[in-house]
Amino acid sequence: MKLLIKISYLGTRYCGYQSQSNGETIQQKLNEATRELFGFDCDIVGCSRTDSGVHAREFCATVCRRKTNSLETKIPLERIVPAINRYLPPDICVFDAKWVPESFHARYSVVAKEYVYRIYNRRVMDPFEVGRAAHLPGRIGESDLCRMQAAAERLCGTHDFSSYMAQGSKITDPVRTIYLSRVERAGDLILYRVRANGFLYHMVRILAGTLVEVALGKIDPDQITEITGSRDRSRAGRTMPACGLCLERVFYETPEE
């Protein structure tokens, strides 16, 4: 059996999820913690590869003994969560653990993921939102918000999303299905929530940037279908900063609204 863990983290001081030589990563910290807990090196396979500065409320990963496809331990399952958190920094937390079959794959078994992009919409940035939301100082009114929502709805469905993929990406199949695309306000925060069966490189940040251009009157909501169909990155909006992006949920079964 494999151990499936659910993790929450603030990505501000990390160079993304995947281990690399130029800085600390989430995977590196998980490797260190599981080695301390179980007494041997483990392979940690994550559900995604979040970029530098991106956060997660629910990130999933499997834990196996290095070069095997399973994990054996005498530690009771109910004790693993508090035990592993003893070896993690305060900005990374494991909040759930369960056993899954060896055939389960943390990344390839995913059927959908949901992200939220957070925009702080006030003239002066709230210091408590620094590193956790992008700042848009120009006030977005209710009519602007309605335009953003109208544009967001036009993104739903199965499309070639090349217009919303960072240039230079090595992805060869840009077709994805968006199940949910919604904009809402929560006080001074504008939240863009998007759920899909997969995402292209920087896709959510570019979608959010395109919706910001809609709010600012630079793109009309009716143009979204045309922009998507053009498969031309230059037609879409800006790439929003990584700090506003958060992986909210990971689905291993068909999501229900």
Helices and strands in order:
Blueprint: E1 2-9, H1 26-38, E2 42-46, E3 55-65, H2 77-85, E4 92-100, E5 112-120, E6 134-135, H3 142-153, E7 157-160, E8 175-186, E9 189-196, H4 203-215, H5 224-230, E10 245-251
Parallel strand pairs: 3-10, 5-6
Antiparallel strand pairs: 1-3, 1-4, 2-3, 5-9, 5-10, 7-8, 8-9
Helix pairs in contact: 3-4
Can you tell me the CATH architecture of the largest domain?
A: 2-Layer Sandwich
Uncertain parts: none
Q: What is the CATH level 1 assignment of the largest domain?
A: Alpha Beta
Largest sheet: 10 strands, mixed
Number of helices in the DSSP assignment:
5
Listing every helix as H and every strand as E from the N terminus to the C terminus, the arrangement reads EHEEHEEEHEEEHHE
Radius of gyration: 19 Å
Percentage of β-strand residues: 25-35%
The secondary structure category is alpha+beta
Total domain units = 2
Percentage of helical residues? 10-25%
Number of E-state strands: 10
Report the CATH topology name of the largest domain. Alpha-Beta Plaits
Distance from first to last alpha carbon: 31 Å
Description:
The protein is of the alpha+beta class and 257 residues long. The protein folds into two domains: 2-100, Alpha-Beta Plaits, CATH 3.30.70; 112-251, Pseudouridine synthase I, catalytic domain, C-terminal subdomain (Alpha-Beta Plaits, 2-Layer Sandwich), CATH 3.30.70.660. Helix content is 21%, strand content 29%. The protein contains five helices and ten strands, in the order βαββαβββαβββααβ. It has helices at residues 26-38, 77-85, 142-153, 203-215, 224-230; strands at residues 2-9, 42-46, 55-65, 92-100, 112-120, 134-135, 157-160, 175-186, 189-196, 245-251. Strands 1, 2, 3, 4, 5, 6, 7, 8, 9 and 10 form a ten-stranded mixed sheet that branches. Helix 3 packs across helix 4. It is globular, with a radius of gyration of 19 Å. The mean pLDDT is 96.
